Amino acid sequence: MNHQNEIMIKEDTTDENGLNTMSDHENTKKGLGEKWPEPTVRVQSLAESNLATVPDRYIKPPSERPDQTIIINHQPQTAAINIPVVDLNSLFSGNEDERERMSEACREFGFFQVINHGVRPELMEAAREAWRSFFNLPVEAKEVYSNSPSTYEGYGSRLGVEKGAILDWNDYYFLHYLPLVLKDLNKWPSIPSNIREVLDEYGEELVKLGERLTGVLSSNLGLKEEQLKEAFGGEDVGACMRVNYYPKCPRPELALGLSPHSDPGGLTILLPDDKVVGLQVRYGDTWITVNSHPHAFIVNLGDQIQILSNSIYKSSEHRVIVNSQKERVSLAFFYNPKSDIPIQPLQELVTSTNPPLYPPMSFDEYRLFIRTQGPRGKSYVESHISPLDN
What we know:
The chain is an alpha+beta fold and 390 residues long. It has a single domain, classed as B-lactam Antibiotic, Isopenicillin N Synthase, Chain (Jelly Rolls), CATH 2.60.120. The protein has 11 helices and 14 strands.
């Protein structure tokens, strides 16, 4: 089904989850104006200029740099630790082992992979290749869609508005899916010719997948199947996508494609590059390089799930390493709460021995942190953990 006829033109003042909650004046006051603090530099252009090293703006402090050994291809299948793989079709057919595997992954990793998830492999490949074609366009064609801090919607090259910040080695494209009234044709690329049709279908399928996954998460917490979705806003959930393009990097041991962070929203459904690894998940004191399963989505829990579950489920820090020999493209789809409703631990998960760990806060407030400060681990969600009474 194609909803392109429902896409409407909006003013460029919407928030990242799709609600028009901030005026231009409010955005500017919070540091989210129409201009970035410094001239925008496209990382892809830097990479294509045959640099011998990485500009200082992209060199991470020694303590934040990735391991010296940069993986070019997939990890060996015998890797001791990897993200659990859940067969969703088997789970919905009543396989309790699959259900328990997913439950344990949410409690231990905050990440899992899903196979047999109902999204056609041909559609997954078409979406990935459409975006790869977009990023291979001449820079002038892409600059038409250049974004601003006030919405992040469009073609961008940085997170956060801190002047002089150390930047990540990536370009990206951000756009909205839900609510439908905020799908903006002016912000959707028109080249390659099939990209809008492909992304429209892809978005519909991933919203359905997000609904199915939150249903399982709810049931595994002992809640009604629809309870997490209701906490997200019911039929008013938000959905958006960030496509990440990681160009070749001349000194990958000095830089990161995306700095450590946890996602501020609900669920992230990631379509990774099928040829080049890059995603790393923190597991204790170790960074696990995720070896993706063919035709799988990588799912991670955002801060809002951690809050709603009262920390029974965990959002996990993750980052992206870059590569000296290959570019990489990944598609992160965000299934999020309605941006302005208060999110707090669900009453059914609060007891006298397990009091609420978080005060009520909207997704807007959590997202604003990463949009102003950039990715900074789990510092924001952890700073709101309530001190327990003695």
